[in-house]
UniProtKB/TrEMBL annotation:
Keywords for this protein: Hydrolase, Membrane, Transmembrane, Transmembrane helix
Enzyme class of the recorded protein, top EC level: hydrolase
EC number: 3.4.21.89
Keyword DNA-binding recorded: no
Membrane-spanning intervals of the chain: 29-55, 169-188
One GO term (biological process): signal peptide processing
Record-given protein name: Signal peptidase I
An example Gene Ontology molecular-function term: serine-type endopeptidase activity
Compositional bias (Basic and acidic residues): 1-11
Species in which this protein is naturally found: Microbacterium lushaniae
Lineage of producing organism: Bacteria, Bacillati, Actinomycetota, Actinomycetes, Micrococcales
Subcellular localization: Membrane
Amino acid sequence: MTHTADSDLRPTRRSQRAAAREEARRHSLLHYLAVSISAAILALMLAVAAAVIGLPALAGGSAMTVLTQSMEPRLPPGTLVVIRPTDPDEIRVGDVITYQIRSGEAAVVSHRVVSKTYENGELTFITKGDNNPDNDPEPVQAVQIRGTLWYSLPLLGWVNSVLNGPNRVIVLAVVAGGLFLYAAGVFFSCARGRRRRAGAEPAEEDAATTS
């Protein structure tokens, strides 16, 4: 009778072990998927940070956001434009320059150089927005120029506006807190999975010994 009862229990124990192994495989797959997603998000955030902050700082330039349609289709609103300092004598026709609308004031615009001339011994530039029908009304003096376009990235200008706006500290705190919570969740999930696997192994050994 005892032998028959043990025989009846063996399939159940094998099923339990198989279920435990299947659960462990599923947990491992989810874990690796979570790690891959987190790594991709982290890489994306680092790339954005490098494009918006790191590279401009290394080149002594600055990142700005296109707000108007004057440079469409190449630079639509929301585009991040990164400019770097350039000697006015090295600026050529066809370059996109960022310059002060009025000398000494903070407001700037980025338009393309359509001609480069000397007036009374002073270097000046005639500019035009790619999407504008006419040239800009006033020539740009060398002293007004902040730099030339280095590279541009679509849509990231909105990110730059948020990071450089009044809510910058809040945004950075939320992002940092979210990453911390996510990392903590991954850590505790891994620890819980290890405890489950550690508890399942003695149970399997006891089942094998009993059978």
